[in-house]
Amino acid sequence: MAAARIAGAVFLTFAATAMSGSSAAKVNESLGGSASSLGQARTGAQILGLCLGFVMSHALRRLGPRAVLLFVIATVALGQVCVGCAAGGLVGAEETPRLFLIGTVLNGVSLHALTAGKEMLARAFHATELASEYGKLSMYSALAYVAGPIAFIALHDGLGIGGDGNVYFIALVPLVAAVCIAATLPIAQKEATAAKLAPATPRRRAPAAASFAAGGEGATRGGAEIALAMLTAVLVAFPFSTMMQALDLYLSSRFQLEPGSIAATTVVIAVSYAVSQAVLFPRAHARWGSARALIGAGAIVATVGATVDSISSFPLWISAMALCVAAMAVAVSASDVLMVELAAPNTATGNARASTIASINNCISPSTAGAILDRKLPLFRVSAAAAAMGVVLGMLTIMPAAAAAARAAGVGGKKRRGVMGSASATPRRSARLSTQKQRSLESARKTAE
């Protein structure tokens, strides 16, 4: 039940930002801004998120994730009010650009709603269940990017409201609901216990290769190893942050789409992301583990991303992007779980590192994407090159380390499907053999009778 409420609060927070985000490009254009200026404003938002990420581990331990979540929602609500006043002309002409900038920057704090939500899950569930629970939470956050644009389409195109700055004030409704839900969550100020992060029993075994920390506690990991893992994750996830920060600008400049069409495209992409989080990621993680799932998904992102800028047909483009986004979803969640595994048993540090990775990318991508679009360069081809570099770096660094950890845990060798294969295959096989033996004995007993 607590997991559902956590997901609900995170969902409503992201839905509010997605609802108003569909009109951000047009509002920026009406205020006389360019792609670069909006990119710079969004960069400022992510810099704020990055700065908060540096203290997020301490805040989660001292204040608890519920207090952090309430702070994030309140800050996002203030940002919505600021942008709404600027877009709606409720302030003087001199104050409008400044207020728009302040509101856009404050909205960048929304990333840490997911950080607080994941920390709550880490404290509530066993380590063997984290990949599944993280995938579900990420799925709900992705569905928020479906619900938000759909709500915008219904308001703007259906009811004829939500134009100018009105949509930013309407977005306060789900934020108020998110506050009400978050206020009912348990305080949960205690960090995850060692029992939750201890190796699983055979009946409840996690894939040993899925745990990068199988060879030892995350606290014993060297700084260089963690830095290389974070750099790999930053490079592999760069196309995702580029898409998140500049998709509206890309669609507006390349395909000349209107806000309603941009919102519809966002729905298709968000559905692909959500389905991947709910279906593909848990299976990929259980079969290959965090490191291999990250590298494999990154390779798909780099390959498909290098081609989408050459596709002129919009239906074919959206199909290719749906495939690319599905791989992005696996890569992002694998990165999040990998950071928690490396920091175990200090889950707050792991979740803070995961948010720092997202913040670093989000700081770089808006200005970079704006400059690329202003110069008419292929946006996704450039970001795919970064992902390719991350794949190469990961194969040279974290993959050997993960393989060594798996061997140290006794799961390597030819009996598995590769070094990173599932460690739960043997218990499941034993259970099947036991069941078959029991059935044979029952059959023999009946025959004897």
Task: Provide a brief overview of the structure.
This protein has 449 residues and is mostly helical. Helices cover 77% and strands 0% of the residues.
Topology:
Blueprint: H1 2-21, H2 24-30, H3 35-62, H4 65-87, H5 96-107, H6 111-124, H7 130-158, H8 166-170, H9 172-183, H10 194-197, H11 223-254, H12 259-308, H13 314-343, H14 347-374, H15 379-396, H16 398-408, H17 425-448
Helix pairs in contact: 1-6, 1-7, 1-9, 3-5, 3-6, 3-14, 4-5, 4-6, 4-9, 6-7, 6-14, 7-12, 7-13, 11-12, 11-13, 11-14, 11-15, 12-13, 12-15, 13-14
Notes on the protein architecture:
By secondary structure, this protein is mostly helical. It has a single domain (2-191, 200-426), classed as Growth Hormone, Chain: A (Up-down Bundle). Helix content is 77%, strand content 0%. It has helices at residues 2-21, 24-30, 35-62, 65-87, 96-107, 111-124, 130-158, 166-170, 172-183, 194-197, 223-254, 259-308, 314-343, 347-374, 379-396, 398-408, 425-448. α12 (259-308) crosses α15 (379-396). The longest helix is centred in the middle third of the chain and has 50 residues, at 259-308. It starts with a helix and ends with a helix. Mean pLDDT is 76; it is low at 189-220 and 411-431.
